[in-house]
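Journal club prep, shared notes

We agreed each person brings one worked example of a sequence with its structure written out as tokens. Mine is Ribbon-helix-helix domain-containing protein. I'm keeping it raw so we can talk through how to read the token line rather than staring at a rendered picture. Sequence first:
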Amino acid sequence: MSLVEKRSVTIRGHRTSYSLEKPFSDELAAIAESRGLTVAALVAEIDERRPREANLSSALRLYVLEWVKREAGQITR
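Then the structure, token by token:
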């Protein structure tokens, strides 16, 4: 069993994919649900804000990390 899951998503009419480890994928889904979004909508939001040179999968991991740290009170915004 692979530790990394590859997923496909359509963002603004463009089909793309990303690869995440299951814990990141699960947390991304939980964040989307808590915000009342689909995973695809959350991925599109993150994709729109990431620097173009940044890899989508890396941007998703960093978003999840930042969210978890903020929820734990380690980041203030």
